[in-house]
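ok so i was messing around last nite and threw this chain in just to see what happens. nothing serious, just curious
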Amino acid sequence: MSDPLPDDTRSTLEAAWADEPSAVGAAFGPYRVVRLLGRGGMGAVYLAAQEEPIRRVVALKVVRLGLETKPMLARFEAERQSLARMGHPGIAQVYEAGQADGRPYFAMEYVDGVSITDYCNAHRLDVASRLALFTEVCAAVQHAHQKGVIHRDLKPSNLLVTQADGRAQPKVIDFGIAKAVQGRLTDSTLVTELGVAIGTPEYMSPEQAEMGEAGVDTTTDIYSLGVILYELLTGALPHDPQKLRSAGLVGLARAIREQEPARPSTRVTGLGARATTVAGERHTDVMTLRRQLSGDLDWIVLKAMEKEPERRYASASELAEDLRRHLRNEPVLAGPPGAAYRVRKFVARHRAAVGAAAFVAVALVAGIALATLGLLRARRAEAEAVRQRQAALAEARKATAVSDFLKDMLSSADPHNQGRDVKVADVLKRAAEKAGTAYPNDPALEAAVRDTVGATLQSLGDLPSAETQIRRALELRQRVLGPDHPDTLASRNSLLEWMQNNDQLKEAVPFGQELLAARRRVLGDDHPDTLVTMNDVAVAVFQSGQADEGIRLMKECLERRRRGLGPVHAKTLLAAGNLAAMYDAANRPDEAEPLMRETLAVEEKELGPEHPTTLFALKGLAALLADRKKLAEAEPLTRRALEISTRVSGPTHVDTLVVWNDLGLLLMDEGRLPEAEAALATGIRGAEAALPKGHRFTAIFHRNHGRILVRMRRFPEAEKELLAAHHDLLAATGDGSRDTQAAVRRLVELYEAWGRPAPLAAWKARLPKETAAH
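result:
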């Protein structure tokens, strides 16, 4: 539990808020404040309600009056753009950021849970269960670091645990928000935003305490994770909180930098009478707990809390993997490299075999043989551990370099200095221009930056700019790392995705199949990266007209992800949604609808209604219901998808434009033709403004607009639309693709309705024989 707030800190906090009016009942954008959750030095957190366009409660963080300076607002906007890139079930979602009367606010997922320490103690989780829960936190932190976002204030009160279907789900809250609402380290950071006296200094790294914002990188979060792990295991903090709070900033930095914490196993026995309570909360006794912590866990915790950042774990995933090694009785990276330690681990993993050997009369000979075998395996394990360590360090160096580079670019984007709104795409384009000179002697790091910039530009819909960065990253990696290096294969997958988004399906299918074979060969069939490529190739193959092969590949991808990631992982759900969409497009609705409904229900619960994967499933179900003429159910789902996509992705994003198309077709089926034409016209205007000329989606919108015009008996206009759509689809996807054949069918329908037998016969001849006969 936390110590109470010191009187001087509480007085300072209360004075800061003395003139602040109550916000209860006030509106910030679409959010109306219900009640105060807590206050800190920089802002307040409220429980707020949103009524429209969807009903939900949120946690609303509002900056205190008087702190809305231009530099802070610029940092706020830059951080909002970073946060928008994250999507992980272990990170509380940031729904929206905005300003009301000049005061910035964040609307976040309201997590109705308790801190990870309180949850573990209340449920008397044993050490193994605590470690398993903690590794899920590490996965969330790793996801954020890969997106270039550092938390900077990890502590138990920012790690909340909820229960869903009897399973504990940790959620990291306030990710990156400290950077948006705080400048340099001040005394105000001694109190959390919720006014809970956890005391940030206890979880602060030496470089953060000493240098403030300038010294913070991903290893700072690793240090904080180490402190949290220390507390989860021992029930105590590594440094005395009262002494830290009373030392002032200079004394605080000196204490964290110079004082070595006791090993966790030693700390437990030093708790005196409280040790029995702590052990009981871990479902054991004091001596057993000490024995469980001694060795591996001592080393792992202290390695995460090393004073020098470069001596810590290189990444959150490396820390989590070492904990999993401990749980599997395998050698840990943090352990001493001695052969005796490796042999002890071997014996622990093969205890039954070793025990049986003790009864053999020739125990001496067998013992020597076993020891020799153990030593050989230990040496191989040690070599593998070194290799993994080197790979992890290289990956962390790359991730940190990319994070630092993009963080610098974002922090330079001050809209007040530039006199206009700064868009993340503009910042990324400037970053790409500088990438070539930022790493003149390190092409691998330049490639990492360009790959990240290219992927982000692609997600924003700027395909021409994305292509330049993706191809340059691939060129650098092929030259420096070789064609089969995992990073080179990752760049090839980025190019595959670009080909699909840019309608180059003729090139995408063979390119993707070759890449899939390479990833299977280099990484294995079940590697997550292999399955990313399998998913993309399945989509490309299906879109090119090979429906059965596309469905087969997507089913394999789904089955492998279910086995490896579990049924509720976001990537598993994405594959399920893709498979359902394929069933629908292949006219197999009885397989598509139940899979779509099941997938959407799980995604709304596990990922939230605004997650991209959830939105994809929502649109898919709405389209399927429309195809099956369940129009009364389909229309509200389609409009809900349109509202969410417009708000989350923007009005001209491809995802939003596709929903306008779906809405137009639905309204056509309902006989509301003027409304249908207006919806398609909106989609066409957006597509022509946002997408390259001749883009497949634009052609599909024109094709569907022509279909509506046929219904309205405006035949000359329909002919113009449909001929242009067929021309563009033929160029983009080929004569045998489903999209091109659909354009041919629409032209047949036009000339039948128009009563023009000559062109009708000509276009009928271009249909497959079984279709034409039917």
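not much to say yet. The chain has 36 helices and nine strands.
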